[in-house]
Amino acid sequence: CGVFGIWGHERASELTYIALHSMQHRGQEGAGIVCSNNDYLFGARGTGLLTNALSNEQLLSLKGFPHAIGHVRYAAKGSSELSNVQPFLFKSSRGDLGICHNGNLVNALNVRAALEDDGAIFQTTSDAEILAHLIRRSKQSTHKERVKSALKQVKGAFSYLVMQEHALTVAMDDHGVRPLMLGELDGCYCVASETCAFDAIGANYIRDVEPGELITINDDGIEFDRYSDIDNPNMCSMEYIYFARADSNFRGHSTYRIRKALGRKLAESLGHIEADIVIGVPDSSLAAANGVAEVLHIPQEQGLIKNRYVGRTFIDKGQEARERKVRMKLSTVKDIVEGKRVIVIDDSIVRGTTSKYIVKALRDAGALEVHMGVASPPLIHPCFYGVDVSTHAEIIASQKSISEICEEIGADTLTYMEVEDMHDVYRSFGSRGECAACFTGNYPIEIIDNLLPQQK
Ligand code: 5GP
Ligand code: SF4
Ligand code: MG
To answer: In which residues is [4Fe-4S] cluster bound (predicted)?
Structure first.
C-alpha cells in the first residue's frame, strides 16, 4: 500500500490526490482520503485505481479541509471490497479517528480475538481497524499516550497514519520494514511512503521516519517521540528490488541507482556468457539490466515492450488472470531480438509466470539463446509483512532447484544474485539493515499468529 498525509495546507485534499496518484504502483485495489477541518473528519473512498475510486463530486466535497491523509490499497490480506478500503473513519464520543496503514501485523488474529472476547465488533478484516480499537480502549489520559499504548500491543510491519480533528500522528514499526518519509511543503509537514509523492506535489524531503518513531503534527508544529526502545532497521529488500518507484529515493539515493548497482553485482556472475544484447523486463528491471550491460560491455536494447495500460500483473489474483495479463502486458520487438543471443534481466522470479512467458516470447521472436539473470536471490519463503508472495506451494523456488527452474522456464542458463551480495549493495547505499526473509527464511519479526492453533 501507499500512504500520504499533510497538515495545514489549503489544498490538502488535492495534494493528497496527486501524491496518491504518484504512488498508484503501490496499490491498485482501492483508494481513499480522510480530511479534517479541526472540528470533524470527513472522508471519501472507492475501489479500483485512484482515478476511478474517487469521483469529482467526492473530491469537491473534500475541498477546503486543511488536513488530510490518504491511502492506495494493495490487498496483501483481506479482500478487495469497499469495506476494506482505507483510510477508515471512526466516530467516537472522544472525537473522530481516521486511520490508514501500510504493512501487515503478525499478531492481528491474536489481538483481534482478545478484543472480540472483550466485546469489540469488527467491520473489516483490516489491521488498521485493530489499532483504532486499541486506541479507543486505552486508559491513558492523552491521545498520544493512547496511541503509544496501542502501538505497543501490535507487532509486525507497519507505517500508521492516525488523523484526529487536531492532530496527525505517524508511527513506524520498530523494525522499519516499510518505507515512510517526512517532507515539507509551503511550511506544512507531510509524510509519504515514497519520495516520488513529494516530487509530485513539489514538497521537500526532510528525512526517513525511523523505526519505532512516533511523530505528532498539529497546528503547533511537529513533535518527535518514540513508542519503542527497539531500533532494529529491517527495510524490506523487495522495496529496493521491485516495489518502490525508480525515481523514489532512499537516503538520497534513487531506487534506480540501487537497482542498477544490483545489476552491476549480478553481472559479475554473468561474465562467462557470450551474448549480443541485454534486455530488461520493463519497467522494474530496466535499471538492473542497465547495470549488467555496462559491466559486460554489451548493448542494452529494448527488446521487450510494455503496454502501459496494463497494471502490475503480480498484484492480480488467480494464476489464469496473471498469465493473461503478462501476455497483454509484454511483447517482443522482433526486429531487435531476431538472430541474437540474449541476456534477459528480471528483478525477481516469484511464481515463474513472467519468466516462462518471456523466454518463450523471445525464442518465438527468433532469439538464438536466452540467458535469464535475476537481480535478486531465489525467492523461497512467503512474506508476512505486507507483500503478497503468498504460499510456499505457489513460489517456484520453494518447490524446485535452480536448474529445475531453468528447465521449467525454458532458458539456456539461469543466474540469481547471492544474498550476501545483495546486502552488500544496500550497505553501500547507507542502509542500516534489510529484511531478506523471503530469500533466507530468517524472519526478523516473529510470526505470532502462526504460533496459535489454527482458527476457524
Ligand atoms: P512471477 O511472474 O514470477 O510470479 O513474478 C515475477 C514478476 O513479478 C517480476 O517481473 C517482478 O517484477 C514482479 N514481482 C516480483 N515480486 C513481486 C512482489 O512482491 N510484488 C509484486 N507486486 N510484484 C512482484
Ligand atoms: Fe520484504 Fe521479503 Fe521481508 Fe516481506 S519477507 S518484508 S517481501 S524482504
Ligand atoms: Mg516485472
So the answer is: 236, 383, 435, 438
170 burial class (0-12, 13-18, 19+ CB within 10 angstroms)? buried
Assembly ipTM: 0.92
Q: How confident is the model at residue 454 (pLDDT cuts 50, 70, 90)?
A: very low
- Whether 406 is catalytic is no
* 227-259 pLDDT per residue, tens: 999 988 999 999 999 999 999 999 999 999 999
Residue 403 burial class via C-beta count within 10 angstroms: exposed 0-12, middle 13-18, buried 19 and up: exposed
- Look up residue 314 and give its DSSP letter: G
> Is residue 314 domain-shared with residue 202, that is, in the same domain?
no
Tell whether ligand 1 has an atom less than 6 A from the beta carbon of residue 228: no
150: domain CATH number is 3.60.20.10
338 and 229 in a single domain? The answer is: no
The reply to whether ligand 1 has any atom less than 6 angstroms from the CB of 315 is: yes
Does pTM surpass 0.80? yes
Cell of 24: 498508484
pLDDT at 286: 97
The predicted pLDDT at position 310 comes to 75
* Residue 82, domain extent: 2-233
Q: d(Cα 96, Cα 136) in Å, to the nearest integer? A: 10
Distance, CA of 111 to CA of 122 (rounded, Å): 12
The CA distance from 15 to 70, in Å, is 10
pLDDT of residue 394: 87
**Do 363 and 224 belong to one domain?**
no
Asked if 282 and 424 sit in the same domain, the reply is yes
pLDDT in tens, 432-442: 999 999 999 99
What residues form DSSP beta bridges with 437?
Answer: none
Instruction: Tell the residue nearest (CA) to atom 21 of ligand 1.
Output: 314
Q: What is the dihedral of CA 126, 78, 325, 436, to 10 degrees?
A: 70
Determine the distance separating the centroid of ligand 2 and the alpha carbon of 246, expressed in angstroms.
Answer: 18
Q: How far apart are CA 123 and CA 109, in angstroms?
A: 15
Examine residue 205 and state whether it is found in any structural domain, yes or no. Answer: yes
Q: How far apart are CA 136 and CA 401, in angstroms?
A: 50
Residue nearest to atom 2 of ligand 2 (CA): 438
Beta carbon of 346 within 6 Å of any ligand 1 atom: yes
